[in-house]
C-alpha cells in the first residue's frame, strides 16, 4: 500500500489535525503480512519502561551541581571561593568553601533521596508481570519487556500495562468495561468495543492465528482522540479494512472491570503512552517570600559592592601619603610594586569583597529548604485533617509553597465533588405535572423499607397511567448502566439483600445510577442487558423484554442521549433524556408548561434536572434512521460532524413525558468554610461546568451568595437581548456607583465591607469577553470585566470548559494587583486550573486522584481548607518571614563591625574575627535557634486563629516582608553593629578598665590586642542575636530552651577548647588562650552584659510603643491572652494565700 496515500487518508480522517507528522504500522503478534500484500517494514519503538526520575547513577553529580549553581547565591559563593583560592585574600578559602559545601551537600542529599524514591516507584511499575501470547501460549514477562505489536491478555481488575487496541473480549458482544479514574479522574465504568471482525478470536490459539496490521497516528497526549485503521488478512487477497477510534483504545493506567478477560495488542508503549505524554513537568512555582528574598539579596549585594569600593578607594587615598604607604612589617616585594595600579586596585577590591562576603547569607537558603521540608510534616501529621471515611490525611506534594498558604487572596473552587459530595440521590420525578417522591435512595445502596411510593397531587387518570408507565420504562431503558449481580467490597459480598441476590448498578454517570434506582423504588426494576435485549420488571412483577437497537450516546454539545428499542409487540420507540434546554425545543406535544415550571422550581432548589421524551417510529422510519447512523459511523472523513448531523435529524418531534430531579448534597461544613474564607478577606469564585440555576442554588446554600447579595448576570441570555458592550458598561456603572470612593487597597479583595454584589457569568460569554476583537477593544472588555469582578464579593462561573477555568485563574493572576491565587478541585477537569494557580489543592474525591496527584497539596474534604489556610498558612508565613528578616539582620550585625574595623587598621584587609568564628557563625552558633523558631513558633493559639478568621488579614499582601520592615531590620543590624564595635573600642581604650585588676602594666595591656578585641565583639554579637530571637519567641517549649541556651553554651565551650588546646593541625595558634584571658577580666564581663542590653533596648522600646499606640488585631489578642494568664496567676496566688491563712487560723 502506498504510504503517502495512507498518510493523506488518515490526515483527512483526522479532520482538522494540522500538525500531522507521521503514521506508524503495527504488526499484530509481530507477524509479517502475507506475500504480495504490502512491504514489511519493521519499525523501532521504545520499550515499555516508564521513567519519572530526573537523574541516573552516572549523571547525578554533574547534573545536580549544574542545577544548584544556577541559583544566584550558590554561584556567587562559588566565585568568592575561587577568588580566595586564586589571590592572596585576608581570610582562608575554608571560610567560604565549608558553608558552600555544606549547603550543596544537604541539598544534593535531599534531591537525591527524592529521586531515589522516584526510581523505586518506576521499578515497581516496570517489573509488574504481564501476560503475552506467544506461539499460542501465555508467557509471563516483566512490564518493561513489553513491545509494540505484542498481544496481551488482561484479566478483570488488572491495570492495562500500555496503550492497547481491543481485539476480543470474554463478553459475547465484544465489549469490555473500564474505569479510567487514574487518568481523567472519572471513577465510572466506560464501555469499549472490539472490532467486529476480531471479536470471535477468544482463545490463545485463535488469537495466535490472527493476521492483521494496524495503521495509526503517532502518539499524542489527547486522551479522547485516536485515529487509525486495522487491516485484517483472511483467505482472500484484499485485506478487510476497519476504522479504529478512541472507543477501541484502552489506555495505560485504566482498569478492566466487569469483564472476565480481554485480548489486546500493544500500540504505544513506555514514554509514548498517552498517560506518560500527559506527565508534563509542572512549571516551577515560586512563592512571594522567595521573590522577596531574591530582591533583598540584590540589595545586600549592592551594599557589599559599595563597601568593597569605598574601602578600596580609601585604602589608596590613605596610602597616597608617602609616610603611610606601608608599615615596615607589611612591605611589598619588588614584583608587587611593579604591578600596574589598576591590577593592584582590582585585586584589593576582590580581597575586600571576600572579607565582607558574609553579609550574603548562603546558609539562609539551606535553612529555608530544611524549614520547608520539615515544616510540611505538620500538615501530614495533623489529626484534624484526617478523614476516617477515606482513611487518609492531607498530603504535601510541594513543600516550596507552605508560606504561600498564608497569602491567598482569591480562591477558585470547583462545585461538583468539591463543594458538593458527588453522591447523587433521587429526589422526585414529575410526569405530566404529577410529582412522585420515593423514600431516600443513596448511590449504590439498596435501602430496606423503601418500596412504597408517596404521591403528591392527584392520581392521574387512565391515559395518565399509560404515560406514567411509559415514563418509568423510558428511564429504565434510556441509559448506559451495567448490572452486576455480586459486588465484592473489602472481601464482603455486596448485593445480597434480605437473603436473596440483588443487583448493583454501575455506570459512567452517577446521575444515571440514581435514576435507575429511583425507578426501582417506584416499581420498575432494570434487570439486565442480555443478548442485545434489555429486561425490566414492572409493578406486576412481570418481565418485559426490549431489543436494544441503537444507542445515541450522550455528548456535552447535544447534552442529551437517546436509545432506540423494539418492544416484544414489535413497536419501535425512541426514548430521549437530556437537559431541559436540549429537550424542550425538540418537543411538539405534552404538558410542557407544567413540566417546565417544575424543572425551574427544582433548579432553584439546587437539584440537577433532566427531561424525558419519546416518539414512536414506524418500521420505515426505523430503516431510514439505521441508514443515516450506519453511513455516518462508517465515514472516514468528518465522522463526528456527520454523526452530529444524523443525531440532530433523528432526535426531533418528541412527545414530552416528564422530568426528574437528583440532588448532589453539599459537603460537610462547606458553608462554614466559605464564610470563614470571606471573613479572612479572601474572594471565593466557583468555577463549574454545571448549569446556572443549579450552580446558583449551591452558591446560596454554601453562603457564597447571601440573601442581601445583589446578583449581576453576564450570561448568554442577557447578551442576546443587549450587546456585550452595553451589558458590561451597565454592570460596571452599577458596581462603581457605590464603590467609586473605595481605595485600591480595598478593591484588592481584603475589604470587610461592601459584600453586596455577586456576579454570574457563563462560558460562552467569558469567551466573548476574553476574545480580542478586530477593533482592538477586546482589551477594554477584559479590563471592564476585571473591574466588575474586583467589586463583587463572590463570582460564579458556570458552563465552564476545563481550559476556561485555567484562563480565569490566569486572568486574575495577571491583573494589576497580582494577587495570590488558590485553585481547589477534585476531578481531571480541574487539573488545568490547579496547575495555573499559585497554589493548587486537590481533593481526594470520587472522581479519581488526577487532581490530587497534580496538586501542590491534597486534602480529603473541602472543610479542611479552613485549617490549612487560616492556621497552617498563617503559621508558615509568620515563621518564614521572621527567618528571612532575622538572617539578614544577624549577618549585618556580623559583618558591619568588620567594615568599621578597616578604618582602624589602615584598610589592610585585616579580619576582625578568627577564621573558625567566620566559618561557624552561620553554620553552628546561630543556625539552630532560628531553624527551631521557624518550625515551632505559634504567636497565637491555633483555636483563636480558627475562631477569628479576620486575623489572616494582618499578614495579607506579604505585609511582614515589605520594604519598610526590611529597612527597619537592616538599620537595627547596623545600630547593633555600631554598639558592639564602638562600645568595645571605647571600653578597651581605657587602660584601667581593660586591666584585669591584678597586673596594670604595659604587658597586660598587650594581652588585650587585636584577637581579644575581635573575640569580645564576636561574643557580644552571638549573645545579642540569640537573645533577640528569644525576645521574639511567643511559644516556649523545652526544645526552645534547650536550643537557645544550648547554642550559647556551645559557643562558650567551643571557644574555650579552640583557644585552650594547642591543635597540631594548625600552622599558627593565634587564638591560644585569648578567650580565657578575656573572661578572666571582670570589666570584660561587665562590658558584654552592658553592650547586649544597650543593643536590645531600642527594639524592645519600639515594640512596646507600637503595641501601645498602634496595635494590630494579632497584638490585641496576644495582650488579652497575657492579661488573662496574669489574672489567672493572681487569682491562684490569692486563693493559695487565703487557704494558707484559713489553715493557720484553724491550727
Concise summary:
The protein is of the alpha+beta class. 47% of the residues lie in helices and 18% in strands. Strands 16, 17, 18, 25, 26, 27, 28, 29, 30, 31 and 32 form an 11-stranded mixed beta sheet that branches.
Descriptive account of the structure:
With 1147 residues, the chain is an alpha+beta fold. 47% of the residues lie in helices and 18% in strands. Helix 4 packs parallel to helix 30 (915-925), helix 29 packs antiparallel against helix 36 (1010-1032) and helix 31 (927-936) packs antiparallel against helix 37. The protein is elongated. Mean pLDDT is 80; it is low at 1-21, 440-459, 487-501, 741-754 and 991-1006.
Distance N to C terminus: 116 Å
Q: Given the structure, what is the number of helices?
A: 40
Q: Please tell me how large the radius of gyration is.
A: 38 Å
Global mean pLDDT: 80
Helix content: 40-55%
Q: How large is the share of residues in beta strands? A: 15-25%
Total number of β-strand segments? 39
Structural class: alpha+beta
Question: Mind describing the biggest β-sheet?
Answer: 11 strands, mixed
Low-confidence stretches: 1-21, 440-459, 487-501, 741-754, 991-1006
What shape does the CA trace take?
elongated
Pfam families: Cation_ATPase, E1-E2_ATPase, PhoLip_ATPase_C, PhoLip_ATPase_N
Domain P-type ATPase N-terminal: 42-96
Domain P-type ATPase C-terminal: 852-1112
Protein name: Phospholipid-transporting ATPase
Amino acid at each position: 500500500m502506498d504510504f503517502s496515500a495512507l498518510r493523506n487518508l488518515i490526515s483527512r480522517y483526522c479532520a482538522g489535525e494540522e500538525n500531522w507528522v507521521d503514521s506508524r504500522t503495527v504488526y499484530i503478534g509481530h507477524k509479517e503480512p502475507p506475500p504480495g500484500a504490502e512491504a514489511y517494514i519493521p519499525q523501532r519503538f521504545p520499550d515499555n519502561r516508564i521513567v519519572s526520575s530526573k537523574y541516573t547513577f552516572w549523571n547525578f553529580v554533574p547534573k545536580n551541581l549544574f542545577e544548584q549553581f544556577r541559583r544566584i547565591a550558590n554561584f556567587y559563593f562559588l566565585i568568592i571561593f575561587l577568588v580566595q583560592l586564586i589571590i592572596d585574600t585576608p581570610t582562608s578559602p575554608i571560610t567560604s568553601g565549608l558553608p558552600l559545601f555544606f549547603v550543596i551537600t544537604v541539598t544534593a542529599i535531599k534531591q537525591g533521596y527524592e529521586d531515589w524514591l522516584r526510581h523505586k516507584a518506576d521499578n515497581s511499575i516496570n517489573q509488574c508481570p504481564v501476560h503475552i501470547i506467544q506461539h499460542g501460549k501465555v508467557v509471563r514477562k516483566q512490564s518493561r519487556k513489553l513491545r509494540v505489536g505484542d498481544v496481551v491478555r488482561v484479566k478483570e481488575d488488572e491495570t492495562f500495562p500500555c496503550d492497547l487496541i481491543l481485539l476480543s473480549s470474554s463478553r459475547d458482544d465484544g465489549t469490555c468495561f473500564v474505569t479510567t479514574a487514574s487518568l481523567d479522574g472519572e471513577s465510572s465504568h466506560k464501555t469499549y468495543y472490539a472490532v467486529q471482525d476480531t471479536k470471535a478470536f477468544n482463545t490463545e490459539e485463535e488469537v495466535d492465528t490472527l493476521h492483521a496490521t494496524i495503521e495509526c497516528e503517532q502518539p499524542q497526549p489527547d486522551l479522547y482522540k485516536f485515529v487509525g485503521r486495522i487491516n485484517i488478512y483472511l483467505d482472500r487477497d484484499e485485506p478487510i479494512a476497519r476504522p479504529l477510534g478512541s472507543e477501541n483504545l484502552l489506555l495505560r493506567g485504566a482498569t478492566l472491570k466487569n469483564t472476565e478477560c480481554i485480548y489486546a495488542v500493544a500500540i504505544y508503549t513506555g514514554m509514548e503512552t498517552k498517560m506518560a505524554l500527559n506527565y508534563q513537568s509542572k512549571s516551577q512555582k515560586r512563592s512571594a517570600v522567595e521573590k522577596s528574598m531574591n530582591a533583598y539579596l540584590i540589595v545586600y549585594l549592592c551594599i557589599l559592592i559599595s563597601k568593597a569600593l569605598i574601602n578600596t578607594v580609601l585604602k589608596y587615598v590613605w596610602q597616597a601619603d608617602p609616610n603611610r604607604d606601608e608599615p615596615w612589617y607589611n612591605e611589598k616585594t619588588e614584583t608587587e610594586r611593579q604591578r600596574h595600579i589598576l591590577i593592584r586596585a582590582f585585586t584589593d577590591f576582590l580581597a575586600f569583597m571576600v572579607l565582607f562576603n558574609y553579609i550574603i547569607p548562603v546558609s539562609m537558603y539551606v535553612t529555608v529548604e530544611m524549614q520547608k521540608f520539615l515544616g510540611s510534616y505538620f500538615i501530614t501529621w495533623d489529626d484534624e485533617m484526617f478523614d476516617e471515611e477515606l482513611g487518609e490525611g492531607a498530603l504535601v506534594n510541594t513543600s516550596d509553597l507552605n508560606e504561600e498558604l498564608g497569602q491567598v487572596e482569591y480562591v477558585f473552587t470547583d462545585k461538583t465533588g468539591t463543594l458538593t459530595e458527588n453522591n447523587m440521590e433521587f429526589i422526585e420525578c414529575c410526569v405530566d405535572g404529577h410529582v412522585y417522591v420515593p423514600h431516600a435512595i443513596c448511590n449504590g445502596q439498596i435501602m430496606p423499607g423503601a418500596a412504597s411510593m408517596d404521591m403528591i397531587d392527584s392520581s392521574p387518570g387512565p391515559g395518565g397511567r399509560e404515560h406514567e408507565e411509559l415514563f418509568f420504562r423510558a428511564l429504565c431503558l434510556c441509559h448506559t448502566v451495567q448490572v452486576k449481580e455480586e459486588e465484592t467490597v473489602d472481601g464482603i459480598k455486596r448485593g445480597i439483600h434480605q437473603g436473596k441476590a440483588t443487583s448493583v448498578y454501575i455506570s459512567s454517570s452517577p446521575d444515571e445510577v440514581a435514576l435507575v434506582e429511583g425507578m426501582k423504588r417506584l416499581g420498575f426494576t432494570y434487570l439486565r442487558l442480555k443478548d442485545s435485549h434489555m429486561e425490566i420488571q414492572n409493578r406486576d412483577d412481570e418481565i418485559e423484554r426490549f431489543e436494544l437497537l441503537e444507542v445515541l450516546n450522550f455528548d456535552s454539545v447535544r447534552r442529551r442521549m437517546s436509545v432506540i428499542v423494539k418492544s416484544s409487540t414489535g413497536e419501535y420507540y425512541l426514548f430521549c433524556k437530556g437537559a431541559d434546554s436540549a429537550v424542550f425545543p425538540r418537543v411538539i406535544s405534552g404538558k410542557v408548561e407544567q413540566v417546565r415550571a417544575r424543572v425551574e422550581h427544582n433548579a432553584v432548589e439546587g437539584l440537577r434536572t433532566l427531561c424525558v421524551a419519546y416518539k414512536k417510529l414506524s418500521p420505515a422510519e426505523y430503516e431510514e434512521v439505521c441508514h443515516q447512523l450506519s453511513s455516518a459511523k462508517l465515514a472516514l472523513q468528518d465522522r463526528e460532524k456527520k454523526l452530529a448531523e444524523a443525531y440532530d435529524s433523528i432526535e426531533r418531534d418528541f412527545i414530552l413525558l416528564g422530568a426528574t430531579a437528583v440532588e448532589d448534597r453539599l459537603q460537610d461544613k462547606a458553608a462554614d468554610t466559605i464564610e470563614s474564607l470571606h471573613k479572612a478577606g479572601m474572594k471565593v469564585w466557583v468555577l463549574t461546568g454545571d448549569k446556572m440555576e443549579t450552580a446558583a442554588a449551591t452558591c446560596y446554600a454554601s453562603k457564597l451568595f447571601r440573601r442581601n447579595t445583589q446578583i449581576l448576570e453576564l450570561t448568554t441570555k442577557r447578551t442576546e437581548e443587549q450587546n456585550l458592550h452595553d451589558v458590561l458598561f451597565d454592570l460596571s456603572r452599577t458596581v462603581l456607583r457605590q464603590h467609586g470612593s473605595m481605595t485600591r487597597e480595598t478593591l484588592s479583595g481584603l475589604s470587610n465591607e461592601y459584600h453586596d454584589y455577586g456576579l454570574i457569568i457563563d462560558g460562552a460569554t467569558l469567551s466573548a469577553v476574553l476574545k480580542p476583537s478586530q477593533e482592538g477593544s477586546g482589551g477594554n472588555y477584559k479590563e471592564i470585566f476585571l473591574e466588575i469582578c474586583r467589586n463583587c464579593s463572590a463570582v460564579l462561573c458556570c458552563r465552564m470548559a476545563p481550559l476556561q477555568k485555567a484562563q480565569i485563574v490566569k486572568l486574575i493572576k495577571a491583573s494589576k494587583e497580582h494577587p495570590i491565587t488558590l485553585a481547589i478541585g477534585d476531578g481531571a477537569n480541574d487539573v488545568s486550573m490547579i496547575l495555573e494557580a499559585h497554589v493548587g489543592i486537590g481533593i481526594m474525591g470520587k472522581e479519581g486522584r488526577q487532581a490530587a496527584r497534580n496538586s501542590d497539596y491534597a486534602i480529603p474534604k473541602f472543610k479542611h481548607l479552613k485549617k490549612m489556610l487560616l492556621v497552617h498558612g498563617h503559621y508558615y508565613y509568620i515563621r518564614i518571614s521572621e527567618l528571612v528578616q532575622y538572617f539578614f539582620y544577624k549577618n549585618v550585625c556580623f559583618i558591619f563591625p568588620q567594615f568599621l574595623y578597616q578604618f582602624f587598621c589602615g584598610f589592610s584587609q585585616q579580619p576582625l574575627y578568627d577564621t573558625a568564628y567566620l566559618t561557624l557563625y552561620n553554620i553552628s552558633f546561630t543556625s539552630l535557634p532560628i531553624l527551631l523558631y521557624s518550625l515551632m513558633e505559634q504567636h497565637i493559639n491555633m483555636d483563636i486563629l480558627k475562631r477569628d478568621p479576620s486575623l489572616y488579614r494582618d499578614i495579607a499582601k506579604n505585609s511582614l516582608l515589605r520594604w519598610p520592615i526590611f529597612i527597619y531590620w537592616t538599620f537595627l543590624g547596623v545600630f547593633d553593629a555600631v554598639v558592639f564595635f564602638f562600645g568595645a573600642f571605647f571600653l578597651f581604650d581605657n587602660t584601667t578598665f581593660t586591666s584585669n585588676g591584678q597586673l596594670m602594666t604595659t604587658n597586660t595591656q598587650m594581652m588585650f590586642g587585636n584577637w581579644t578585641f575581635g573575640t569580645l565583639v564576636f561574643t557580644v554579637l552571638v549573645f545579642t542575636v540569640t537573645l533577640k530571637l528569644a525576645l521574639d519567641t511567643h511559644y516556649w517549649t523545652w526544645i526552645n530552651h534547650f536550643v537557645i541556651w544550648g547554642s550559647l553554651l556551645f559557643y562558650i565551650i567551643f571557644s574555650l577548647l579552640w583557644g585552650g588546646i594547642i591543635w597540631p593541625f594548625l600552622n599558627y595558634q593565634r587564638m591560644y588562650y585569648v578567650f580565657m584571658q578575656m573572661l578572666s577580666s571582670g570589666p570584660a564581663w561587665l562590658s558584654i552584659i552592658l553592650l547586649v542590653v544597650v543593643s536590645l533596648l531600642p527594639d524592645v522600646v519600639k515594640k512596646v510603643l507600637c503595641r501601645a499606640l498602634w496595635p494590630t488585631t494579632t497584638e490585641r489578642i496576644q495582650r488579652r491572652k497575657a492579661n488573662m494568664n496574669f489574672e489567672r496567676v493572681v487569682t491562684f496566688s490569692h486563693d493559695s494565700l487565703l487557704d494558707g491563712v484559713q489553715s493557720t487560723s484553724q491550727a
